[in-house]
Amino acid sequence: MISIVGIGSGNRVEELTIKAYNTLKNSDIGIYPGNFIGEELKELFEDKTMFTGRDITSEKIKNIFHNNRDKNICLMVSGDPALYSGQFNTNLCLDEHIKWFNEHNYNYEMIPGLSSLSILCAKKSIDLTPFSKTQNVFITSIERLRDLKCFNYTELKSILSTKPVLALYQSLKEFDNIKSLLMEFYPPTTKVIFAQSLSWSNECIFETDLKTLNETESTTSQFNDQTLILVYPSTILTIK
Amino acid sequence: MISIVGIGSGNRVEELTIKAYNTLKNSDIGIYPGNFIGEELKELFEDKTMFTGRDITSEKIKNIFHNNRDKNICLMVSGDPALYSGQFNTNLCLDEHIKWFNEHNYNYEMIPGLSSLSILCAKKSIDLTPFSKTQNVFITSIERLRDLKCFNYTELKSILSTKPVLALYQSLKEFDNIKSLLMEFYPPTTKVIFAQSLSWSNECIFETDLKTLNETESTTSQFNDQTLILVYPSTILTIK
């Protein structure tokens, strides 16, 4: 059996669900392609086989599955597997893995995990949909849209014109390009939060507002590609 | 200390994070205003005080906090506390609780949980953002927008015109009213999933497509207000 398990930040066992924890404990082999897996989680695999690091390519992962059909294998995914898994042209996303499992008649299950958006909201006590604000939440990744050649400025404009709460995954490189759109539609007091390495020792959560951002040339240099950006309108609804 | 804890479906301990589980176990008092809390979770409070049911009003909750300042109190919230907590004019949302805690100098923390969207995706092996599709996910609640007198048909239209993956919380009563908008913008093969009572014994996940829905007079009568509706475009991107 293959389990695709969401592991939240990847650095804290306490962020795993009990089901995810038990699945990791009961697996024979653990796979995490990349470096965002910490010691606490690695310890769960002390007496098992674990494959991790940037050199664990999708081809290698397929070989591990192929050579261990009788084993319980756990493929770990940062955050929740349903949102922005994989890396274009580098690591398969969840959907590509599932297609491959179906083609090759593998048994698999998917175990949900905390998204970085949920983790960030909890750390900052943020209610994405309070009764005093819009109930609209828009989540996207500008870099992935670019990678897939389907970024559409006009489309983004018509969405942002409705001023939803905005969660941007993997969008940092493009942030300066959409800043003017944000300024056009959101009030200058709109809160903008950059969150990087949540729940890791180098966690950085930087809160600012659109007005300040607009007066700064570029704020993005101190952050990396994995930064989550939350744009949170401060407008209070006037209930009629 | 007050902990606001996301409990996922509210019926399965295995859906709790380890931190949420430990917080429930270590609390003196548990509060869940409503009925969507199952036996497995109630058992965690066997030797403690628990307040649950529809008669646990926000006023009663404030009194419990007030009369137990020295205790560890756990306020449980379905799904993830950041998304669609509370019920308009009936139960306070997260943000209202937090404002009240701040006003009265209470210590509190927020512990994230699995949203019903994450739980549904895992059950149906759905990747919300595969490389073959748009990376845009739009989450809203039409009924809450109506309650707050800020539902705007034109705004919704401009968002749906971009064909995002659409997750509708608390929107069932309004679904028939927006069906024509969906038909206008999404391909007829677009998958529509109605999910009710996820992880409860009466769990119901009904999959259909827009074309079938459009040929049916009303499909919503078998579902309740808490139904999550996922609109998942089947269009495959042609990567240029």
From TrEMBL, chains A, B:
Identify the residues that the record assigns to the Tetrapyrrole methylase domain, covering every copy. Answer: 1-213
- A molecular function (GO) term: methyltransferase activity
Q: Which keywords describe this protein according to UniProt?
A: Methyltransferase, S-adenosyl-L-methionine, Transferase
Pfam family example for this protein?
Answer: TP_methylase
**Pathway membership:** Cofactor biosynthesis; adenosylcobalamin biosynthesis
Source domain of life is Bacteria
* GO BP field: methylation
InterPro entries (alphabetical):
4pyrrol_Mease (IPR000878), 4pyrrol_Methylase_sf (IPR035996), 4pyrrole_Mease_sub1 (IPR014777), 4pyrrole_Mease_sub2 (IPR014776), Siro_Cobalamin_biosynth (IPR050161)
Q: What is the protein name given in its UniProt record?
A: Putative cobalamin biosynthesis protein
